[in-house]
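Marked as duplicate of an earlier ticket. Keeping the data here for the record.
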Amino acid sequence: MAEKDPKLVNAGVSDYNKPKRTPNHPTKSWIVVARNSEGKTKTIRFGQQGVTTEGSDPKTDRGKARRKSFRARHKCETATDILSARYWACRHLW
């Protein structure tokens, strides 16, 4: 078996493009080792620690408004660079 990429080991994730919670990090709540189609890898931390989201299925009007505002503010419809924190926050959290 081939040796794991040191970035995966240091981040404590099982595979590329698999986000993992980081509850003990002082500022960021998620980590991912992203790998694009060209094979380039990057360790990315995203999400504000302590903030809860309702994700893709908000139940309340307030939750729906928060989701809409976040997605507009960060231009989530154009987030296509897998090596950016914006991409992961838009796709994974909101």
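See parent ticket for discussion. The longest strand covers residues 28-35.
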